[in-house]
Write a structure and sequence with these properties.
The structure holds two protein chains of two kinds. By secondary structure, chain A is α+β, with helices and mostly antiparallel strands. Chain A has helices spanning about 1-20, 25-55, 75-85, 95-110, 110-115, 135-145, 160-200, 200-210, 215-260, 270-295, and strands spanning about 65, 90-95, 125-130, 150-155. Chain A is elongated, with a radius of gyration of 32 Å. Chain B has two domains: about 1-80 and about 155-225, P-loop containing nucleotide triphosphate hydrolases (Rossmann fold, 3-Layer(aba) Sandwich), CATH 3.40.50; about 85-155, no CATH class. Chain B has six helices and eleven strands. Chain B has helices spanning about 40-50, 75-80, 95-105, 110-125, 140-150, 170-185; strands at about 1-10, 15-25, 30-35, 55-60, 65, 80-85, 160, 190-195, 205-210, 215, 220-225. In chain B, α3 (about 95-105) runs parallel beside α5 and α4 (about 110-125) crosses α5 (about 140-150). The chains are: A alpha+beta, B alpha/beta. The interface of A and B includes residues 6, 203 and 215 of A.
Chain lengths: ~300, ~220
């Protein structure tokens, strides 16, 4: 057990010294991997932030239904019955115009000014809680309700959240495409790096084969090489993302103050960070594996 | 231990390196393989280590037909052989010590035990005081001895040497022959190729003589005095 551990540790130490010899080339390789990963991962972080914003604002979508000022109580009763029987509506709430005026007085502190009004300018209103919270269904329902006789306007609250969500869906597809392409690039980068490694260690491979090394023994350091490079690239990507978020948040702070809000970009979660590291390690391991499988059999001692 | 029966080897391109070669080497025997360069000595040794495969005939090593050995079984055949290469095949990116350590690492040998073995091996060929040097700083004779140290560190039952005294002056060559002699005395089977018949005159050993890929019947099994 300890023997095996020492053996693997020795391989790892050799691999690390190989990755960084020459130091600049190794570093550049890792930075390239880091940048390739940080692009999709960074976009993903922004999307996640947008997503959490949407979720905060759209968990209980409402449609406000403003009636015509002249609406009679008979009309109101009709509309109420229709709304109650509507299959897409979970609950309704009636806000009479007088009550709305009272609320306005209290909430805005404009009671003096409102008291000076000759007549109540506010209409009667229904607040409708739809069953579905899906953007398209809400839009359809809103249009339907706006068309009822006696209804002046239907207003979908948090409509912007749904628009943002639609945008996020678009973004998610973009991230998916970008990350697939860059993953492919990552595999290609490692494939080539390992190919060069194999060429530079050609002699060692030949000699090792001659004195009884199994293919697994020869393959191992190259796979370690790929995986280690991937892990270091993943760590670089993590650093790039979190540093960028730090810089962005710094600027966002002053912006948020102007809007009297406390909006902040959240960094990668622990789970996402681990996924990033594992994913990059795996991809580079895969590239190394493909490269080794392709090139090692071509080196036969003669 | 080693037995060839009607072995033919033709390289791609048509060059016939060995023709109908048959012989047997018993366990613990020391056998010299002579002939001019191009006579097929290296090819014969490569067939034993399955570096090359015969076109026809069978090559048995330890009763195993190595000519048809599966790729995956090759490493385990070679671990039982010590091979001393004509061109040394030393690795110049590591120390003398690490060169000798390589076969043990390949077998997954216990590290501390391995260090002892490497030292013993280096001691045997007289290179113990050079263990930290780079092989490139060694002379031709020393490089040859380092190659021997690497071949014996595994304590193989069979030792193959391809022109071990090829470019060495007479004193060095004698020294190396004495090292082989001592292996022979502890029961190692040796097959040594050489074009330099001088080293044979003072030895009572069996000689296989190759000419243009054929074993010479007259000299076959001959013993020089």
């Amino acid at each position: 057990m300890t023997q095996a551990f020492i053996r693997h540790f020795t391989i790892l130490r050799n691999v690390l010294s190989r990755i960084f010899s020459p130091p600049l080339a190794g570093m550049l390789n890792i930075i390239v991997i880091g940048i390739a990963l940080s692009l999709p991962a960074g976009m993903y972080v922004l999307l996640q932030n947008g997503q959490s914003m949407v979720e905060n604002h759209s968990d209980s979508p409402q449609i406000s239904l403003f009636l015509e000022i002249a609406a009679k109580s008979v009309d109101i009763e009709k509309i109420k019955n229709k709304l109650k029987q509507h299959p897409g509506i979970a609950e309704i709430e009636f806000v009479p115009r007088d009550q709305a005026l009272e609320q306005l007085k209290h909430s805005t502190g404009l009671s003096d000014m409102i008291g000076g009004l000759e007549s109540n300018p506010l209409p009667d209103a229904f607040i409708v809680h739809p069953k579905s919270s899906e953007a398209h269904a809400l839009e359809v329902l809103k249009n339907e309700l706006a068309g009822l006789t006696g209804v002046d306007q239907a207003h979908l609250d948090s409509a912007w959240a749904y628009k943002l969500e639609a945008l996020l869906k678009f973004g998610r597809v973009a991230v998916l495409i970008l990350s697939s392409l860059l993953s492919l690039a990552l595999v290609a980068i490692t494939f080539n790096t390992i190919r060069l490694q194999i060429l530079t260690q050609r002699e060692e491979i030949e000699v090792s084969k001659l004195i009884g090394a199994t293919n697994a023994f020869i393959r191992r350091p190259f796979l370690y090489f790929g995986a280690t490079q991937g892990l270091l690239g993943g760590i670089t990507a993590y650093a790039i993302i979190n540093t960028s978020l730090l810089l962005l948040n710094h600027q966002l702070d002053s912006l948020a103050q102007l809007y009297a809000s406390e909006f902040k970009l959240h960094p990668l979660t622990l789970g996402d960070s681990l996924t990033l590291l594992l994913f990059s390690t795996y991809l580079c391991w895969l590239g190394a594996w493909l490269s080794v499988a392709r090139h090692l059999s071509q080196i036969e001692p003669r | 231990m080693i037995s060839f029966s009607q072995v033919n080897k033709r390289y791609p391109g048509g060059y016939q390196a060995l023709r109908n070669v048959s012989f047997k080497i018993a366990e613990g025997e020391m056998v010299f393989l002579t002939g001019h360069s191009g006579a097929g000595k290296s090819t014969l040794l490569k067939l034993v280590a399955a570096i090359e495969r015969p076109n026809s005939g069978s090559v048995l090593v330890n009763n195993q037909n190595v000519g048809v050995l599966r790729e995956r079984a090759l490493p385990f055949l070679r671990r039982n052989l010590g091979i001393i290469f004509q061109d040394h095949k030393l690795l110049f990116d590591r120390s003398v010590f690490d060169n000798v350590m390589l076969p043990l690492q390949i077998c997954g040998f216990d590290h501390r035990e391995g260090v002892k073995r490497v030292r013993a091996s280096l001691d045997k060929v007289g290179l113990l005081n050079r263990e930290k040097s780079n092989p490139i700083s060694l002379s031709g004779g020393e490089q040859q001895r380092l190659c021997i140290a690497r071949a014996i560190v595994n304590r193989p039952a069979i030792l193959l040497a391809d022109e071990p005294t090829g470019n060495l002056d007479v004193d060095y060559a004698k020294e190396i022959m004495n090292i082989f002699r001592s292996f022979h005395q502890v029961g190692v089977t040796l097959l040594i190729s050489t074009h330099d018949t001088n080293v044979l005159h003072d030895r009572d050993v069996r000689v296989l003589s190759l000419r243009q890929g054929e074993l010479q019947p007259a000299e076959n099994e001959s013993r020089l005095k």
